[in-house]
Amino acid sequence: MSVDYSRLAADYDAVRANEVVDRTFWLAAVREVGDVRPGERVLDLGCGTGRFSRLLAETNPVVATDLSADMLAASKEKGDFARVRGDAHRLPFRRNAFDATIVIMVLHQIEDHAQVLEEIARASRKVAIATTDMGSRELGVLEEAFPSLLAIDRARFPPVERLVAALRAAGFASVRREERTLRRSLPVADQIDRVRRKYISTLDLIPRREFEEGLRYLEAELPRRYGDRYEASGRFTFLGAAR
Ligand SMILES: C[S@@+](CC[C@H](N)C(=O)[O-])C[C@H]1O[C@@H](n2cnc3c(N)ncnc32)[C@H](O)[C@@H]1O
Known about the structure:
By secondary structure, this protein is an alpha/beta fold. It is built from ten helices and seven strands. Strands 3-2-1-4-5-7-6 form a seven-stranded mixed β-sheet. The site of S-adenosylmethionine has 18 residues, from loops.
């Protein structure tokens, strides 16, 4: 099951990117757990629209790589970093081209995570991964609205233990794991709009009828349950490894 990012590229930043959250939650965790230091050469693998490449480029030389030409094209206005279209399974870079590779919410999209981690170990000395442990993840009211969401995501996201084993097999001798919780408060109307615009790629994979019924459920249920502001909470897993 794969997501068509050529369709999502135009809307991607509008429903997902938030500079404060991107800096203080995602990038901070990736830097800390992955031990990514200023000045180090970084590969942003599965860079999407380049929202993290842009921020990292303030302190590091960055190469942004993605399979989707449309996502890379959407990164063009983001500033001064290199862009290379490529497949994570066959990275178009020489051995040790980078000090660190960052992989933020990408591994659930790819076919063979073991092969991708081997490719990263070839091109880079360190890696920092952001993912979700779907075995323990709860999606709250979204699960009520979209009954098949969790099962689809459980099938997509590689179990974290398997990622840790694959990192070791790829030659990353030391692996660190850290769970961090992202809490956000946003207007209920904004959250409904994010769902309508499919801010989680899984919403693109559920049957259309389920999506429409679930959206109607949230339009009624979120204001009733939360009033004006939606309190979102999500637990994410960060892995850092070095060889
Ligand atoms: C959920 S998005 C994450 C984008 C970005 N890291 C972020 O957090 O904003 C996943 C990205 O992975 C890319 N992707 C999927 N399969 C890939 C592959 N085999 N090689 C490189 N990129 C891939 C998609 O095109 C998409 O841009």
